[in-house]
Please model this.
Amino acid sequence: MKRLMRNEKGLTLIELLAVIVILGIIAAIAVPNIGGIINKTKDDAVKAEAIQILEASKLFMATYPPLEGGETKTISKEELDPYLDNLSSDSFSVLVESDSATNKYKYKLIGHRLLEIKPYTNYETEGITLDEINNPKDDTVK
Model:
């Protein structure tokens, strides 16, 4: 009888229950965090695409005749296609404004899905610049 008692190997029911409870606690903490990380990654991808569009607009304007002070130009998606790869946005435009005082251009992205992300809701009508993408006015949501 002593030999049979010594050869018993395995886990007791209480040990199994303890492992299941621990795994449940870990899952309850990890699943919401992973969901948040996925959403943040999607938002970051949209933001990166918007930055890519504005940078491509600068390249486009380098090959375009210079604008006079106060003059504006709207660049369509079709005009930017040669400068962009693998965009998921179908419709957008970039408004380029020439500043007569500084002789510099200001680029505003209009109609892009970036403007649907919460910190950027203030820019839906007038468009958004590269500086505003990196430093949104509404800091309540990050």
Remarks:
- DSSP finds four helices and three strands in the chain.
- Residues 119 and 137 are 7 Å apart (CA to CA).
